[in-house]
Amino acid sequence: NTFDFGIVGLGVMGRNLLLNMADQGHAVAGLDLDDDKVLSLTEEANSQHRIKATTAVEDFVALIRQPRAILILVPAGKPVDAVIQNLLPHLDKGDILIDGGNTCFTDTDRRYTELSAKGIHFFGMGISGGEKGARFGPSLMPGGNKEAYERLRPIFESIAAKVNGEPCVEYLGNGSAGNYVKMAHNGIEYGIMQLISEAYDLMKRGYELDDTTIQKVFEDWNNTELESYLIEITGHILKKKDTDGQILINLISDWAKSKGTGKWTSQNAMDLEVPLSTVDAAVAMREMSKNKPERIEASSKLIWNAEQTNTDLPAAIETLKEALYFSILITYAQGLALLTKASKEYNYELNLETIAKIWRGGCIIRSVVLEDFRKAYAKNSELKNILLDDSIAKTLNENQSSIRNTVQFAVQKGIPIAGLMNSLAYFDAYRSENLPTNLIQALRDYFGAHTYERTDTNGIFHTEWND
Ligand code: 6PG
């Protein structure tokens, strides 16, 4: 029992994380029921690696030094419970199990409680960065017991992505904090991807730019304040040619799939009463993308003849860039505001500066703006919303004419930009001292005697509106 760590599930993610750990000098045991996976891992390892993979649970557990640390990387849901049940008879008090999948945080809470009663420390850990990230440096979001984390810290810090030498992993908080933070990460991921696709649509159908020019715009944008992983890979994607030389993106079906994390983010934001309108729009647009036959039918019935526009192209692209930047900031703001509320609601004790810090590298939503957010939280850890930071507010104010012009252009052209529009609406609502929701209160009171509060005096009021 001299191995430092164990991984259950040797699919791509499990195998890559295991090899990443082995590269860093850790002795790692692997378990998978599939002989082929065990074999292919052994083949992939080099002579310096201290790796042992097996299909036998007993042998696997016996390899790992105590307290054992075991990462489970199997599909979220029932498979995780099955693995836990398999391992349990062989574990001892104080051992640590970590679920590294995109697990719903409420499942983690349940498992945390069940396993705590048995003396086992259970962690939910978000892992971001895809296959490459797992192999060469992911962003890791662990939540669970703080003391138990010390057993994991050196291993995780050694394999995580580094920004300015700082590892993109830190203990995040209690219970299901890790899975919750990863869920919010994915909500933001949904929002930004939607916004990027809208900017692409505006260039393609709005300004009628050719494929090469659009590709070049994204490539150039990655050298600006938009610098980020998702902008960078959009530039790569738009360049890719199919075997016959056609641009691949033009051959990809527009039916967007999803595994559910974005939807969970929106659902939970509604439960916590946190507005998340850009993410909601992103989820809705993926749903809309599924109705292809209906959309085809509607496209010949619901007609809008857009006027020809004369555009100064370089200026329009600059405006679009600023509009996209503005909306991306709003998307992060929504996700971070959700984390602020969730931290209180679920007693996670999250530190938003830490989260911004570990998202700067390794993860899918990494971008240069995360450093601005980290600084904002470093200045004021009680910041209710990132929009209230002076420096972020200044940036948004400077870019707001661009988002307004972009939205106007899209509306005139009949191009759906739910993400951009909702980002602007969030901004305008957030900065409105008075919203028209007083009328909603009056309507509720009129038809249902639901009562209302007044601006001029305290108390609960009801009016007989028909008298
Ligand atoms: C990451 C990604 C990863 C996965 C998404 C895809 O951080 O590495 O978020 O976890 O690719 O969950 O989600 P959808 O299938 O829902 O788009």
From TrEMBL:
Substrate binds at N102, S128, G129, G130, H185, N186, Y190, K259, R286, R444, H450. It catalyses: 6-phospho-D-gluconate + NADP(+) = D-ribulose 5-phosphate + CO2 + NADPH. GO terms for molecular function: NADP binding; phosphogluconate dehydrogenase (decarboxylating) activity. Residues 178-466 form the 6-phosphogluconate dehydrogenase C-terminal domain. SUPFAM superfamilies: 6-phosphogluconate dehydrogenase C-terminal domain-like (SSF48179), NAD(P)-binding Rossmann-fold domains (SSF51735). The keyword Membrane does not apply. It is an enzyme of class 1 (oxidoreductase). Its EC number is 1.1.1.44. The active site is at K182 (proton acceptor), E189 (proton donor). Catalyzes the oxidative decarboxylation of 6-phosphogluconate to ribulose 5-phosphate and CO(2), with concomitant reduction of NADP to NADPH. Belongs to the 6-phosphogluconate dehydrogenase family. This is 6-phosphogluconate dehydrogenase, decarboxylating.
